[in-house]
């Protein structure tokens, strides 16, 4: 445990490590320990270390258990297609022109 915002996690039941970024933008719901019942948003997740968006009320202790909900960063390829196999229900606009492309000068004809 590094702080109330950053700590390492280990999967129970002998499961392998989660892929980096799997929990990013997801939720942790603590079931045991001093933070029991608290729900925390995950800002980032890499190499088994979770960084939360805000501090927990109490410092987590070794053995605390929580349920984890995988996060979604609203990206078509990385999240909807690869992580969740749910690209058909993606409701974003990944191919919408940006303001830069709308206001830029046209390319001269060759």
The residue ranges in which pLDDT falls below 50 over 5 or more consecutive positions are: none
Distance between the termini: 61 Å
The number of helices is 2
Order of helices and strands: EEEEEHH
Helix and strand composition category: alpha+beta
Shape: elongated
Q: How many strand elements?
A: 5
Largest sheet: 5 strands, antiparallel
Helix fraction, binned, reads: 10-25%
Mean pLDDT metric: 87
Q: From the structure provided, what is the oligomeric state, counting identical versus distinct chains?
A: single chain
Task: Trace the largest sheet across and list its strands.
Answer: 1-4-3-2-5
Provide the gyration radius in Å. Answer: 19 Å
Task: Explain what the structure shows.
By secondary structure, this protein is α+β, with helices and mostly antiparallel strands. 12% of the residues lie in helices and 21% in strands. Strand 2 (27-30) and strand 3 (39-46) form a beta hairpin. The longest helix has 8 residues, at 76-83.
């Amino acid at each position: 445990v590094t702080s109330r915002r950053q700590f390492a996690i280990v999967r129970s039941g002998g499961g392998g490590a989660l892929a980096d970024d799997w929990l990013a933008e997801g939720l942790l719901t603590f079931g045991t320990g001093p933070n029991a019942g608290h729900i925390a948003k995950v800002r980032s997740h890499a190499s088994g270390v979770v960084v939360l968006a805000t501090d927990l009320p109490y410092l987590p202790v070794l053995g605390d258990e929580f349920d984890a909900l995988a996060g979604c960063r609203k990206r078509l390829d990385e999240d909807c297609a690869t992580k969740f196999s749910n690209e058909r229900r993606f409701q974003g606009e990944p191919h919408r022109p940006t303001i830069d492309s709308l206001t830029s000068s046209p390319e001269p004809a060759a």
